[in-house]
Amino acid sequence: MVSREKKRASLHEKLQILRTLTHSHAVNKLSIISDASTYIKDLKQKIAALNKLEIASPQNTNISEEPLPVVRVQVLEKGFLINVFMDKTIPGLLSSILEAFDELGLTVIEARASCSSSFRLQAVGGEVINMHSSTYFQNLT
């Protein structure tokens, strides 16, 4: 019986995380999953539109040849650790990453960045706050 309760609590927590990531205001499981499906469909459409723009614009051909940063995320007991590494520095990369943290509602407690010949960022964050229901998540798994 305890195992069933743990599974139910784990499922509830994961649904709430999904709800947060998709900016859903739904309360029941079916609506949360439906909103997530719609969110994914919208993202796919945005990707397709961006791909069309990239193909149509010859000046952007060098962008696709740029190496992507290596990102590693580690879930801590009460927060997260994110490491980002890239062989070269790109103007605006640090600010873009920090804006993404803000959009995701991640609170960065400590960050170390180096932008000399290569780009390195190590960010330690605290608890993730679900702004819709004021619920605090201790763990993202």
Spatial extent as radius of gyration: 18 Å
Structural class: alpha+beta
| Number of domains as seen in the coordinates | 2
- In the CATH scheme, the class of the largest domain would be Alpha Beta
What value does the average pLDDT take? 81
Order of helices and strands: HHHEEHEEEE
CATH architectural name of the largest domain: 2-Layer Sandwich
Provide key terms for this protein:
Alpha-Beta Plaits; two-stranded antiparallel sheet; TF_AMS/ICE1/BHLH6-like; nucleus; alpha+beta; 2 domains; about 140 residues; disordered C terminus; sequence-specific DNA binding; Plant bHLH transcription factor ACT-like domain-containing protein; four-stranded antiparallel β-sheet
Tell me about this structure.
The structure is a single chain. This protein has 141 residues and is an alpha+beta fold. The chain folds into 2 domains: 1-65; 66-141, Alpha-Beta Plaits. The chain is built from 4 helices and 6 strands. It has helices spanning 2-21, 29-56, 61-65, 93-103; strands at residues 70-76, 79-86, 108-114, 119-125, 128-130, 135-137. The strands form 2 sheets. It has a 4-stranded antiparallel beta sheet with strand order 1-2-4-3, with no helix packed on it. Helix 1 (2-21) runs parallel beside helix 2 (29-56). The longest helix is centred in the N-terminal third of the chain and has 28 residues, at 29-56. GO terms for molecular function: DNA-binding transcription factor activity; sequence-specific DNA binding. It comes from Zizania palustris (Northern wild rice). Its main location: nucleus.
